[in-house]
Structure formats: structure tokens, C-alpha cells
Amino acid sequence: MSTSEVSTPEDSRHLYPPRRGGWRGHKDLVSGIAVFGLICILPWVPLLGWTSIFDTSNNYGLGNLAFVFAYAAAAIGFNLLVGYSGALGLSHAGLFGLGAYGTAILTSPKECLDPACDPIVRVATSGYDWPFLVALPIVCVAAAAIGIIVGFPAARLKGFFLAIATLALGELIITIIRLDEDVWSGLKSNGGTGKQVPLFLLPGFDRTQSAYAVAAASMFLCFIGYVILTERRLGRTLKAVRDVEIATGPIGISATYYKLVAFGLSAFAAALAGAAWAQNSAFVNPSAFRTRLLVFLLVVLIVGGLGRLWGPLIGAAFFVYLRQELQDTQKLLFLVLGIALMLAVLILPNGIASIPDRIRQTRWADDLRRRFRSGALNND
Amino acid sequence: MTDPTTTTTTTPIQTPSRETVLELRDLHVAFGGNRVLEGVDLEFKAGFNGMIGPNGAGKTTLFNVLSGYVMPSRGTVWMRGENLTAMSQTARVKAGLGRTFQSPKLVLDATVMENVLLGRHHLFRWGHVAELFFWPPRRREETASRRICMEMLDRFGLAAKAHQQAGDLSLGAQKIVEVCRSLVAEPSVVLLDEPAAGLGADDVTVLLSGLRALVAERQICIVIIEHDLALVAALCPEISVLHFGEIISRGTPVEVTSDPIVVEAYLGAGFELGDEVAGMDS
Question: What CA–CA distance (Å, rounded) separates A50 from A57?
Fold first, then answer.
């Protein structure tokens, strides 16, 4: 008899987890709209003017925020891979670099064969002259393919072995970029290391605003993809691969396939973030994508909150703030980042993004809630 | 020995066509020099099939061979005329084989419903790209799947806990959730590895009545490994006894428990089936 109760149409809402009434039932959606709305108006309404670093009334602040978004986008992909599929793939820095270099090379103007050309310009411009919006998706898909190839050997490895193998493969990407000097170093006059990135300009925007928009859009894309996919079948399947990998075969899930999917998606996000980062920095250099970047991304993810929706954005803001604040003393930056990482692991294992939950669970908050409720009852 | 008919009449075994679903032919498995299975020949028919034997007899290894964890060194496995022996684990699931584990393998930070939905993973027609783009047929498919899972949870008395975290459930409830997960995959054979171990008496009752109702409705073959002989005897019309990798006895519960070889190898002298079954029914 209870079977018939369940199958009646009015009970179909119980098939999905019950939502709380009002806006609280759509917390992620509401907070998402609020945050992205804020990001959209920030260039015109400098709400963050009180912080000199994120003051959007000038290019410096806009650029810093664009870096925040780029790092956050990469960290969202990292979050999907590490937080959901449980595979500690560390080839992210390389894939980030691939996105940056890939778009830079594809969008650079064709080599100038005219002997009248300035020799410096001739070397600097050895690209394919593609439009940015064509190059970007192609580079991201290519990076996803490379991520899947990296994932193939990695899908058979676990834990430390996986971390070491993917770390090496990520370094390999950068080493390959370094092989051809024409590719990685464009403008020799610029100290001899690095490549000028042709800048994509949105109509009616200047270069910093365009970079800001590109970075915000990449983060938005990664964020939306992450929210949609993890709340549905892909999310629960990846959780199964993470937690009960041994049992996935008899459940009917191919653990290898889903690890590769996670590798591919996170590589896509990393390349997208890398391209956005390159647009903002306007100059790419292979040494920017070595293990140091990976450590930065780990700090962003762990200090922000592993597996938390807003963790990557909060972590990225924290990281960029520290980096700009301690710009003149690089060694101090590493010291502070190291201490922050240790403190996060010790005191806040779920990152800064878990602080509201932590506060909500304290006895003090419980007491406050109880008083509020009894107060409301007395007034009735 | 008490009257054997009291045990058998309570079980839905007299269904007219008891077709053979799973056939094991001459299965040999060795881990190095340790021969675990030595020429196992078995047929499992639709309905309940019991598998008993002392610890280390090779019961779980047999399940691992059937679900593809262990490759047999010799022998074949047939399921409804299909040769499973060389199939991948996921292909076996698609062919209609499901199983549970001795210790439940659930995603503890996902809800009970999500865990059960995992069992229907291979039945989804729409892929993850459709998921990303809010494709309406995908949503309908998900809802239909959730309905099937909810009905299955309801059979086993867990519908009210569908949206709780699986980690918040007791071990017994987790094992029942795992049974549900294997059953929603629309399998033709389900291998249950000690489903009642660690379950409370009321959980066992719910589990057994749920399984009985399901077997009465569908042509499903359930193979149960269990140490609780009374439970196996109450459920299964046919029991196989595995001892050091060999089938030493097969037959009805009464035949098996009165077989002197089984008594010596597994049950021990002085074993009385009737008392235990009577105790279970009360």
C-alpha cells in the first residue's frame, strides 16, 4: 500500500531532495546571481574602492580582479578533479600554460616575410592570426584532449604515484613549449624571455576592461558547468569513483572512463583560465607555468575550501591580495602562503568558505537562535 | 529432524518454470599455488539459491569470478546463453548481473537516493552533455529513474530515509541500501554476499519479505552467501555447500543439512535445522 503512495504524482516532489521555501531553497542560484551581478557592475561602481588592491576605478584594481577570476576558474576545474573524482592530478600548471601559450600563438599575426620588416618584429610575429574567439575554444578542446591523454596512464595510478606522474607530465608540456625558441619567446627586446600576447578587445572596452570581461566570463562558464554537472548524474558518479572505486565495476560504472572525463573537464577549465590569465598579463613566459603556479593553485583551492562552491573564488581573492600586498618581498609571500596553507589544513580543513558553517554550528550561534525564537514567540 | 514441509511451504519456490539462469562450468581459480576453486560446476535457477560453507571455502572468490574481479584459470560462466567469462565488469552489469559486498560500498556523503540511483547508471540513455544543457527528456528520464528507486526503497522500508546522507544510516540499513542499488539495475542475476550479516532482527525481516516479493514478481535469480543457515534454509529451495573450493553437497535444505559430509565439514554434529527455522518463523 505504501508503494502506491510513492508512485502517485503529487508525491513526485519527494523524488528530489526537499527544498526549503523561498530564496533559501535556491541558495546557490541566488548567491550565484548576486556575485556575478556584482562582478558585472564593479567596473562602473567601485564598491571595492576601500581596498587599494581591488579598487576597480583604476586599471590596477581591474587587472587584479581579472587575475582573481582566472585563478578561480582554474581552481574550479581543479576542484572537480580533486574534490569530486578524488584523483590528485597535478598537471594543471602545464595545462594552464598550454591555454595561455596556445591562444597567444594562434592569435599572433603571421610571420612578416617582407625583408623590409624589422627583424625583431619578424621573430615576434610568428603566429597564425586567428581571431581570439575561434582560437580560444579550439585551444580549450585541445587541452581537454591532452588532459585525457595525461589521464590515461594516470587512471591506473593512485595517490602519490598519480601526483608524481601527472606533475611530470605537466612539466613536460612546458618543456615541449620551451623546445622551440621561436614559439615561446617572441619579442627578444623584452629581456629575451617570453611572448607578447595579442590582446582581444571587446567593442567599446579598453584592454583592461576586455581582459576583465574575458576572465569573468571564463570563471562564469566554469562555475555554471561545475554547479550543473556536480548536482546531477556526473557528480554522483564521480563521487562513487572517488569513494568506492573498487565497487564501481559491478555497479556498472567504468572508473577509468569517469576519471578521464574529470581529467578532460578540469583540463578544459585550466586552459580557459590560462587564456584569460594571458589576456590580462599580456605577456607569457614558460617559467610562469612551472610547479610554483601549481602551488599557488593548491593554496587557492585549499585555503579557499576544497569541494566548496565559493572556495575557489574566495581562495583566489585571498591569494591575489597577498601577492599584490607582498609584491616587493617575494620571499615573505612564500612564507605567508606556507603558513596560510598550514593554518588552513590545521584549523580550517574546509577552507575559508566553511567559516559561515563553522559559526552556524557554534554553541553561541545555537544560543542566539534559541533566544531569537523564544523572543519571537513571546511577542506573539 | 522436524517436518521439512514447514520450511519449504513458506517459500515461493514452487513456481512452475524454474529455468536455469546462471551456469558455472568447471571453474578453477588459483592465487599462486593456493587453489581456491577446483572444478566448480553449478547451475543457479530463477528464484533463491543458497551458498554456504566455512570461512575460506571460496564463496566470495566465486562471486568475484562471477562479477569479473578474478579471472578463472579454467572454466566458463554462462548467463542465459551468454558467455560471461571474458566480459568486462561493466559489460556483465549490462548483461544483467548485479552484486553486493560483504561490507557495504556506499558513497557516504551522498544521499541514499543518489546511492541507489548509481545502480541505474548504465540504463540512462542521455549522456552528460544533455545534462549540461537542461535537455527536458533527460530530466524526465532522471525522474522516472528516481521513481523506480523510490519504489525499491519503499519495498525495503527506507523510503522515508531517501534524502538522508547514506553515512547517517546504520550498518544494517546501509546493507539494505546496497541491495536496493543492485536490484534497481533490472538484473537477471543478483549475487548477495552475506546480506543479513550485521542486521538487526527487524531489518532481516524487512529484507527477506522484500526479496520474496520481488522474486514472486520477476524472473530474477538471487544467489545468497550466508552463514545464518536458518535464513538460507527458509529462503532457498536449493543450497550448495562449498568446502575448500569444491561443491561437496547440493540439494534442498533438508537434504543438505542431513548430508553427513556437510555435517562433518561445516555444521558440526548435533545440528538441528528444524529448531532454528521454527525460531525464525516465530
Answer: 11
What's the pTM value of the predicted model, to 2 decimals? 0.85
Domain ranges for chain B:
5-96+187-281, 112-186
Return the CATH architecture of domain B5-96+187-281.
3-Layer(aba) Sandwich (3.40)
Between residues A345 and A48, which one has the greater pLDDT? A345
pLDDT at B269: 65
Residue B191 has pLDDT above 90, yes or no: yes
Domain ranges of chain A: 73-196+224-379
Chain B residues within 8 A of A246 when measuring between CB atoms: 105
What per-residue string of b and e applies to B12-51 under the rule 16 or more CB within 10 Å gives b?
Answer: ebeeeeeeebbbbbebbbeeeeebbbbebebbbbbbbbbb
Residues from chain B that touch A229, judged by Cβ atoms under 8 A, are 128, 131-132
pLDDT tens string A245-269: 889 999 999 989 999 999 999 999 9
Contact check, Cβ <8 Å, B105/A252:
no
Q: Cβ(B169)–Cβ(B134) under 8 Å?
A: no
| Whether A90 contacts A165, CB under 8 Å | no
Amino acid at position A354, single letter: S
pLDDT in tens, A355-368: 888 888 888 888 88
Counting beta carbons within 10 angstroms of the beta carbon of residue B124, is it exposed (0 to 12), middle (13 to 18) or buried (19 or more)? middle
> Each residue of B16-42: pLDDT tens digit?
457 888 889 888 998 888 888 888 888
Who among A6, A15, A228 is closest to B131 (CB)? A228
